[in-house]
Fold:
Amino acid sequence: VQLQAFGGGLVQAGGSLRLSCVASGLSFDEYAIGWFRQAPGKQRELVAVITRGSATGYADSVKGRFTISRDNAKNTVYLQMNSLKPEDTAVYYCNAVSGSSRDYWGQGTLVTVSS
Structure:
């Protein structure tokens, strides 16, 4: 099983980025997918999650700015990030969890938002 996160980079405050998490080696449509982030010196936190049925949930800090979506045909989950703020700077990770509690993490992708 492999999860690969793409799309991080350097962006100015107010800008946008789209992260992608591409999965292989699993039955993608059986998994809920979450995006987490970890800023320097801080704990990893959940940013957004999308269930097998495409229900979504967001941290209060990103509601109205971030949108999570999935394309099961491409084994991919996206995180569209708009109106980025310097406090969104972090390494972003994707996580896949099945109904039987199988749990996989991808490598992170760094998002840096300059003020």
The chain has no helices and eleven strands. The mean pLDDT is 97. The radius of gyration is 13 Å. Residues 11 and 41 are 21 Å apart (CA to CA).
